[in-house]
Amino acid sequence: MKSFYLFSIWLLLILPALSFGKSYQDPTKPNIKHQKNVSVAGSLGTLRLESVIRKQGKVKVVISGKIYAKGEQVGEYVLSKINADTVYLTRGSEQLKLELYHHEIKR
User: Fold this and answer.
1) By C-alpha distance, which of 46, 35, 28, 48 is closest to 103?
2) Fewer CB in 10 Å around end: N or C, the chain?
């Protein structure tokens, strides 16, 4: 019985040490090798579409950590169109397209 308790204590001490260095990865997370961002000259830096939020009939997006709605200013650009996975920013005749996903989803 004493050896069982010693083995149990040893097991409790050694198991966390074995798994300490192992990195865990979410199996549902897409395997993305690189993230494509749109680089815009000026004060904006790099713009990245992070999320499209639909709630109570209103749509907002998260671009580079900030929340915007259609028609709002994003630096020198205006958020002109919001789709399920893309947004369009315009400045005069210039148009930028930001995509939510930049990879293929494998089945």
Assistant:
1) 35
2) C
What's the mean per-residue pLDDT of the chain?
78
Measured distance CA(6)–CA(38) in Å, rounded:
59
**Is the Cβ–Cβ distance between 30 and 104 less than 8 Å?**
no
| pTM score, whole prediction | 0.56
Residue spans per domain, the chain: 38-99
Q: Please state, in angstroms and rounded to a whole number, the distance separating the CA atoms of residues 88 and 20.
A: 44
Q: How far is CA 98 from each of CA 1, 2, 26, 52, 93, rounded to the nearest angstrom?
A: 65, 65, 25, 11, 16
